[in-house]
Amino acid sequence: MFKILKKSKTSQARAGVISTQHGLIHTPAFYPVGTKATVKGITPAQLNEMGIEAVLCNTYHLFLRPGDQVVKKFGGLHKFMNWQKPIITDSGGFQVFSLGLGLEHGASKIPAADLEARKKRNAGVEKFTKITEDGVYFKSFLDGSKHFIGPEESMKIQENLGADIIFAFDECTSPFSDHEYTKEAMERTHRWAARSLKAHKRKDQMLFGIVQGGEFKDLRLESSRFIGAMDFDGFGIGGSFGKFRKNVKNILDYSVEYLPENKPKHLLGIGSVEDIVEAIRRGIDTFDCVTPTRLGRNGTALTRKGNLNMKSGRFALDKKPIEKGCGCYTCTNFKRGYIRHLFQSGEMLAGILTTIHNLYFMEKLMCGIRKDILNGKF
Amino acid sequence: MFKILKKSKTSQARAGVISTQHGLIHTPAFYPVGTKATVKGITPAQLNEMGIEAVLCNTYHLFLRPGDQVVKKFGGLHKFMNWQKPIITDSGGFQVFSLGLGLEHGASKIPAADLEARKKRNAGVEKFTKITEDGVYFKSFLDGSKHFIGPEESMKIQENLGADIIFAFDECTSPFSDHEYTKEAMERTHRWAARSLKAHKRKDQMLFGIVQGGEFKDLRLESSRFIGAMDFDGFGIGGSFGKFRKNVKNILDYSVEYLPENKPKHLLGIGSVEDIVEAIRRGIDTFDCVTPTRLGRNGTALTRKGNLNMKSGRFALDKKPIEKGCGCYTCTNFKRGYIRHLFQSGEMLAGILTTIHNLYFMEKLMCGIRKDILNGKF
Hints:
Radius of gyration of chain A: 20 Å
Largest interface: A-B, 36 and 36 residues
CATH topology of the largest domain in chain A: TIM Barrel
Helix content of chain A: 40-55%
CATH superfamily of the largest domain in chain A: Queuine tRNA-ribosyltransferase-like
CATH architecture of the largest domain in chain A: Alpha-Beta Barrel
CATH class of the largest domain in chain A: Alpha Beta
Distance between the termini of chain A: 24 Å
Number of domains of chain A: 2
Mean pLDDT of chain A: 92
Low-confidence stretches of chain A: none
Oligomer: homodimer
Structural class of chain A: alpha/beta
Strand content of chain A: 15-25%
Number of strands of chain A: 16
């Protein structure tokens, strides 16, 4: 259930609450990503301490390992990973793309180096994925084994995983796909949306439909109208948008054009501060992205004044916290010079402390925006 | 200051309290090792939650990186690593051995694979260390740069690091050294002990002398008599001992033979459960070892029934905690099947959760032994 508490007068921004079986999500909200049923390097106790309300896990990865059947035997993801607050799972469609066709197009979100390694490893494999009306045949990124996921399978897997919010199965097209192919894929996604709705049995889970259409205005409007008219509990916006700019109409605007106002809207995989702010202006309620955790592990700290490279020698003697005034465990207990030493020494705690800061930073960013919306100041 | 609260009637075991500037250490105690000013993967908050009272850091590593001068600029190790309870630093002697001469003898505690890699990397370097009456010339394991540490330098470095308990500079001989060389090294260690005592200025730090003498009974007795007669605040027993056996006199017995009863005794680098129990019988109060953390990171959990390989497929569907009845964060919140999944997936949290369990296991082991001594049941 979604309740809007306050709407901005100057934009489509709103503050609200999503109620789930495992508690409330106050929106706008950012979901840390726990791809394989763990937010990398962070315990659930630490997530709780930061005030984080929900995490997003990846259906594709968990389907392959440990397997949704295994997770089900543990009583679902909440019990498996010991996270008692809301969990969201994506549909698997994006990973099937990014670890499959996206590789062939070189358009995946995977870092270039990994991409090359993966391409080499898979040399001789003719195609990673084969998309049919039924669904997607693909090879495991782990061992090359063959699998199939269609809308019915995605629903079954997500029911086994047992998240509070799940997504309809979609085809995420490559930004390099042309209008013709993107239209074809979008229409297939629409048919899959209907099949997902029909196949979904667990009514304690909210099911979100996904708007696609690539970077084409007409397709985005069409997808928004089609998916928006269906009986979903909320909506996800998938695919790529280009850069959002203030007061400039964007693919995202067309994507939400016909979505019902009273339902929650999730922007899949977008996590930069600028993009989040612009997306909230356009009526987006929730976000997920690996960026804050990935950056943190690799030595980049998010601050209000921009990113800091914590490995830099200029921090060697710096007695300041990562960010002055930040209330996170890292900033209230450790100095930049220590964190720099940990990165230089290849210590696990380096990535842990910086990830804690980055997730707290995102959480506080969202709390601040929410407060501004509630106070009519956004 | 050290106070013995209770002595065992059937052995030399005792329960006591070491008072330091940063609080109490209840003995027998096990110190987790935080080589580079961090217990790998574990936050100070997590250590506190486990009830851990003290950690041991390595002088050699911190001297090389970030440098004791840098740590001093941060106000010492306690402030640098945000650990407000007691800290112990070793003298650097063991690492000069294990990363130097020990390599040449193939007798270092470094895993064989690392050893080979390190030997190759250093191929062409004629000698890693050169020991003179003044001290030790050695090459950094980080970059091959040349350094010198003698007793006066070790004291200065350890004063800059600012631990509560520090050690006299010693030469730790290889188990492959003969009687003649071991005797020569021991006598040098005795002269260095006198110089360490003389050079040590910070009276807020307890200074421990180190008994050496290899696996030779006569040398151990001689070292014990010599070092035990000096005005140290406590004593460390260094070097190798062979396997301890119940009711069988061992090199460790000769090492403590002449040490004053009313001072604390630390056994350097020993951490197996069996050895700890036998060493406590012989009057040892405190221990440090990387084993619980190293094993935990690499997938081995300590339990009362022996070690568990958490990577094993037999745990895939196991809903039990690592150890039934264990009160640690890991065992009260996560199941073996989940931890196995994390190891299989190469997730940081795998090593973190297993390390937490292992350190808690050691802490509870020591608490149990202490309680038994206090109740006259050890």
